[in-house]
Amino acid sequence: EKEIWNRERLSLQKSLKQADAELSKLRAELRSEAFLRELGSDTDNAVLRRIYGKYLRAESFRKALIYQKKYLLLLLGGFQECEEATLALIARMGGQPSYTGLEIITHHSKGFTRFRSAVRVSIAISR
């Protein structure tokens, strides 16, 4: 008789745990439904999700472009250093051109440099 009572007690405890789990699940579902009702209808929610998805996609593209820009600037800087070293080596060897740096080659007027900087700023702002 004691064994029967223990089996019945275990089965009742198991069913109680299942009922508690189902109760917590239903409460969470009820909370989420109430939240969705506060947000608005399903169509509004779908529109918000679509717009948010577009935002996340655009943000991802923006971050990718920033990474690409940094990489390309780093790559160009490496090429410029290599070119400067090559020109300095040629100048030491006594061949043409006899420049010791790129300052003479890329020397522009102050007005041109300011104009180019202003254009780059306007392009950066528009992006």
UniProtKB/TrEMBL annotation:
Localization per Swiss-Prot or TrEMBL: Cytoplasm, Cytoskeleton, Microtubule organizing center, Centrosome
Positions in coiled-coil regions: 2-29
InterPro entries reported in the protein's UniProt record: AKAP9/Pericentrin, PACT_domain
UniProt entry tagged with the keyword Secreted: no
Record's keyword terms, sorted: Coiled coil, Cytoplasm, Cytoskeleton, Phosphoprotein
Boundaries of every Pericentrin/AKAP-450 centrosomal targeting domain copy: 54-127
GO biological process: maintenance of centrosome location; regulation of Golgi organization; regulation of ventricular cardiac muscle cell membrane repolarization; signal transduction
Pfam family, one: PACT_coil_coil
Chief location of this protein within or outside the cell: cytoplasm
GO cellular component: centrosome; cis-Golgi network; Golgi stack; synaptic membrane
One GO molecular-function entry: molecular adaptor activity
Keyword Phosphoprotein attributed: yes
Protein name: AKAP9 protein
Organism: Hypocryptadius cinnamomeus
